[in-house]
Specification:
Layout lengths: L7 E5 L4 H8 L5 E4 L8 H16 L6 H7 L2 E5 L35 H15 L6 E5 L2 E4 L12 E6 L3 H4 L3 E6 L8 E4 L3 H7 L3 E12 L1 H10 L2 E2 L4 E2 L9 H7 L10 H4 L3 E5 L4 E4 L3 H12 L19 E4 L2 E2 L10 E4 L2 E2 L9 E4 L14 E8 L4 E8 L27 E5 L5 H9 L11 E2 L1 H7 L2 H21 L11 H11 L13 H18 L2 H27 L15 E5 L1 E6 L8 H5 L2 E9 L5 E8 L4 E5 L4 E5 L2 H5 L9 H12 L11 H8 L2 E8 L9 H16 L6 H14 L7 H7 L3 E5 L9 E5 L2 H4 L1 H4 L2 E5 L6 H13 L3 H23 L2 H18 L6 H10 L3 E6 L7 E6 L2 H13 L7 E2 L2 E3 L5 E4 L1
Parallel strand pairs: 1-2, 1-3, 3-4, 6-12, 14-16, 15-17, 16-18, 18-19, 27-29
Antiparallel strand pairs: 4-9, 5-13, 6-9, 7-8, 7-9, 10-11, 19-20, 20-21, 21-22, 23-26, 23-37, 24-25, 25-30, 25-36, 26-29, 27-28, 30-31, 32-34, 32-35, 33-34
Helix pairs in contact: 14-15, 15-16, 16-22, 19-21, 19-22, 21-22, 21-23, 27-28
Amino acid sequence: MLASTMLKKLLTIPPSFKNFGDSYFADKNYFFCTDPASGKVGSGGGTVNLLNEAFKQEAGITDLNAWLEKDSRLIIHAGGQSRRAPAYAAVGKVFTPMPIFKWKRGQQIDQSLIDLQIPLFEDILNNAPAGLNHLVASGDVLIRTEGALPEIPDADVVCFGLWEQAEKASNFGVFFSEKTSPHELAFTLQKPSPERLQELQPDHLFYIDIGIWLFKPKALKLIFERCGWNEASQSFANGAPSFYDMYTTFGQALGKNPTLIDEAINELKVAVVPLPKGEFYHFGNSAELIESTSKLQGLVKNQEEIWQNKIKPTPDLFTLNAVTKIELHSKNSHIWIENSWIGPKWVLDSKHIITGVPQNDWQINLPAQTCIDFIPIGDSDEWCIRIYNFYNPQLPKRGVNANHQFSADDWFNEPVYEVYKSDELSEAVVQNLIDNPFSYVGSSRRLVSAANLANEVNLFRQYAQRNEYLKSNMSAIAGNWKRSVFYQLDLKHAATIFNKAELSLPPELGQDAPLLTRLHDQMFRSEVLAKSGVDEKLAQAKIHEERAFGLLAETIVETAKTNLAEPRLNVMSDQIVWGRSPVRLDLAGGWTDTPPNCLINGGKVLNLAVELNGQPPLQVFIKPSEHFSITLRSIDLGVKEDVTSFDELKNYTAIGSAFSIPKAALCLAGFHPDFSAVNYTSLQEQLEAFGCGIELTLLAAIPKGSGLGTSSILASTVLGTLSDFCNLKWDKYTICSRTLMLEQMLTTGGGWQDQYGGVFGGIKLLESKPGIIQQPTVRWAPDHIFSDPASASTVLLYYTGITRMAKNILAEIVKGMFLNGNQYLRILEEMNHHALKTYEAFQYGNMDDVALAIGKSWKLNQRLDSGTNTPETQAIIERVADYLISCKLLGAGGGGYMLMFAKDAEAAMRIKATLNANPTNKRARFVDWSVSADGFKVSRS
C-alpha cells in the first residue's frame, strides 16, 4: 500500500473559489486562502498571510515559530485576477484543466495544471536537506526537468533556475553566481539588459528565476518581520501584512553581494540550483495556454513511446471535457474547447478559447480570434456570456475599437457582460453578442464586470456540467480505445469515475488486442467491480485480477517454449555437480525490474552479491541415480520427495510443496513435454533415454523472508547446476531469464534483479530496455569501499529475526503498475533515476555519499509501500539512530536483513553492543559478510 503523503499544500486563490474549493477538494489536503481584502500585499505579504491563516486553523499550536519548524509545506500563489487569461480567472490558473499527453502514462482524465506542477515540487521537498521545509512557487508556470534532481545544498534559501540565452533572460529576474562558487548566490537582478549580462558573464554564471524557492523557517521569519509581524501578539501590526515583494525587495537583498542592503537578510546563506534539462512553460494568457500545451503534447516524437494513435488535423487543437459534434480541419488551428457542447451546426475558424457552453442545438458562426465563455452565476439558472479577443481580453471586442467611452477608469471594472436566464439563451442571442460586442450599451439587463464575474460565478454548477461531459467522454474513449488515451490513464482513478457515475464497462478486449493493453483492461475491470462492494461483483473482480496476472505469466513463460531444451547427460556415473551462489543486497532501484513495469519502461537496479559467514549460502548438488526417477531432497528442511511422472513434475504450484522450485526448473530444463525438444510418452522413458535418474539436493542456509532474494537465486542455482549436468550450455544471462520464467510459472511473480544480483558477482548496475524479453546489461562498480577493512567495518548486516513474505506485497504493487497508478509510476521513475545516482556514488568511492544514497533508496521503498517499515523494525532503528548515517531493510522490507552504515568504526561497535545486549528476538543477530566477486559457480567431483 502506498504511503500517504502528509505534505500540506497551501494555495492563494480568487475569493469566489474558497468555499467551493474547501468542499470540492476536501480530500486533496489543500488549504485555500485569499489575499487580504484590505489591498495588495505583494508576493512576500501574500506568502506570510497564507502561512498565518493556515497556522491559525491548526489546533494545538499557538507559537508560529514552532509551527513553521514542524512540517513540510508547499505554497502556490494562484490568486491573481488573471486578466490576460479570463477563461479560468475564477479558479486561478492552477486549476486550468489539462489534456492527457499522448506520451505519458498514469495521467488522470480530469487533471489540472496543478496536478502537473506538484510532482516536481514534492520531489524537491522530498530531496531537500532537513529544515528546508517550505517551497514557494508561482501558479501560472509549469517547469519540467529530465533525469534525477541535482543535489540540493543546505542553505537558508535555495533558489531554482534555468539556463537561458542572454536575449531571453533579459525578460526575467536573473540569479547570478560567481564561476568560482557556482552554487552560491551572488546577487539577483530584475530584467537585466543583454548588455549588462554580457558585462557580467566573464566572471559569473546566470540563470533565470523560475519562481521556485525553498526556505528554512529562519528566512520566512524575516519576511514575516518585514510585513509587520508582532512576535508578542502573534499577529500582524495592522491586522494584515504590509506590502512586501519576495522576488524583488527580498530577492535583491539575498546573496554574497546583494544589490539591496538589509543586514539580517544579507546574512542568510543562499544557494542557487539550475535544474537539468529544465523547460519553462508559461500559462499567462490565452495564446500561451494553447502554445504551452501544444509544446508539451509534442515533446516526444518517437512513435514507439506514444500510446495514442489518433492524428489531429493540426497539433494545436484541444478538446477537453467536451462534446464536439463537428469535424475540425487543417484550417482550424489554435483552438481550445473545454466544458462545452459544440453542436454540428457550429462553424469555427481559428484562435478560439471556448469554455462552459451548455448543451444546445444552435447554429453559431465564430469568427477568427473570437473567444467565448459561458459562465454560470447565481444559485439558480443565470448565465453570463463573455466574448473577447484571443490576444486582447479587454472588454467585449474583436480587435476593433468602437470608440465607446468607458465609465470606469479600469476596464476590468467596467460592467459590460449581460446576465441571462437559461430559457433566454438562444442561437440569436449568442450570435448577436458575437457579432455586436458593444450591444450591452443601453441594455436594460443587469451588467457584470470582469472583476465581479470572478466573484459571482457558481463553481458548483460549472464543475457539475464539466463532470457530466467528462462522463460522456469516459465512455467514448473507453469504447474507442484503439485511437484514444484510455489505457494510458491512471486506471485506478478512472475506475473511481466509472463507479461513481455508474458507467457500464466497455466491451472486453479480444485476443487481437496488444498484450499490455489486455493486461491493463483486465485489471481495470477488476478495479471497477471491486469498488462496487457487491459480493457478486467482488467475485468477478477476483476473476479479472487473476486473468491479468495469468496473462502476464503466460506471456513470459511462452518465450521459453520458443527455445525448447534437449537435456543430455554430461557427467560420469560417480560424479556430483555442485552449484553455489551468494545472495544479493539490493542497494537502489528495486521494484523497477518488476513486470509489467520493466516490460513498459525498462528497469534500472543496483545491487551487490555477498557471501555470508565466509560461504555462499545457496547450494545445489545433482548426481546420477540408478533408478529412472527423480529424487528431491532439502538438507535445511529435512524432507524428501520422489517424482516418477510428468504430472507430478508439473505439479509445482501445489500448496505447501518444499520442491516447487526444482520441479519447475526441471520442466524448463526439458524434462517435461511443454519444454522438451524431443517427445517422450513418460518421464521414465525420457530418463531411460537420458541414461540415468536424477538426485537433486538443496541447501538454503538462510531463513525465508530474509529480503536477500533467496528463492530467486536458489532457482538460478538449480537451473545453472542443471545446465551443467544436462549439457544445456546456458550462460549466466540465460539462467537469469529462465529464472524470471520460473517465478511466473510458480505465480510468485517478481522481477529479475534477485537472480542477476546473485548469479553475477560484485556491485553492478543492471539496466533493461522495454520489451517482453528482458535481458539487462551489467555494468560493474568498484567495490573497494566494501572490501577495504577500515571502511567495510562500518557497514553492518543485521538479521532482525522478523519475516515478511514478499508475495502479497508484490501483488499489491504490481496491481498498481497494471493500473498505471500515478503515484506508483512517479516513485518508480524516481527509483530509476536514483539507481544511476547511487552507481555514480560508488564510482566516486565516498562512503558517506554511498550511505546517504542507499538511505534514500530506503525512503523511496517506504513511499512505495507504507508497510515496508513496521513498528518493530523502526524500534530497532531508533535504538541505534545516533550511531547511523543511514540504513535500509533489504528486499521488500518489513523484516529480514537490515544493512546499516555506521558513522565510524566506534559507532559500529556501539551498534553491535546495543543490539547484542538486548536483541529484538531470539533469532536476531549480526552476520559477517563479504563481497562475492564470482557470483554463481559450478564444479564437479
